[in-house]
Amino acid sequence: MRDFHYGIYIGRFQPLHIGHEQVIRQALERCETLIIIVGSSYMARTPVNPFTFEERAKMIQMAFTHEVFSGRIVILPLYDYEHDYDWTANVKKGVTEAILDHANKGGIRLHGIRDFKIALTGYGKDSSSYYLDMFPEWDNIQIDTQHGTINASDIRYDYFRRLPRMPRDAVSPKVFDFLFSFSLIQPFKDLVAYKDALSRDNIDYGQGPFLAADVLITWRGKILLITRGKEVGKGTLAMPGGFVEKNERFLDAAIRELKEEANIDGQDIADYLAGHMLADNPKRSLRGRIVSMVFHFDIPAEVEVTTPTGGDDASHADWYDFESLGTELFYEDHHTLITNILAGE
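User: That's the sequence. What structure does it adopt?
Assistant: Structure tokens below.
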């Protein structure tokens, strides 16, 4: 009999390395079932979050095939909310649903999870592990070491380069094979270009703070989005926008960027300004500290609007049904910003 019915292990696993595997093995020694929660699951690829949830789940399955298929390991995706209280509530909701589903195995539904002994497990390596103290209702299993000094950040730094340094000694053989195969496909090339572009921007412009302006236009049940054409976030969807120039007001910058990136004259829609929102999360961009003012224009259905066309930093511009688009299609925090504005937050 093990100490706990369920263990909870939260991580991004970008990629899964032997340190993660050691934590998993030690947790399984004390827990009957381990729920592995994969953070940053619904995001577009970036050099910090290069692998999809499905790819990371596959890594875990390859390293722990028997445990996954026997039900001793359950893998869950986790959406990253901007605020800790939303994130924490989402973790608790996902854990509750997973435990009830796993414990009942399709039979009689239990009412709550209070009859189970649950423990949050992890390796408290640095400030990024602060979440270990965010769930006081669960017991805590602290893993003393996660295999020397190995960390995923160093692996990514060496891996995503034009001549990748493969982490043979830091990952299990099957994960190594996955990483080698991934290095031969287009997403790897795009991520290397993304990383190189971030490095060039940092050298040329520094880390900020920078001022920016973005535009959200709603019209006939759809919103205007551009497809980013440059290496940073190439191919992802975003609101038209850009940096504020010297002696330029935020609204003037937004109208200018709207014309440059979508070929829509902001003066034609100026009367339909419905509100604005400040986007100032310090961690919202990999490019540095970017503070943006987002302007929302709500255009009546009877008003005709010029057909958008991509220009400048945008390879394409069009009207989209926002509800049909997944968060993984969007650049950085633009999906969250749009969601908050449309919800009136």
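Residues 84-104 form the longest helix (21 residues).
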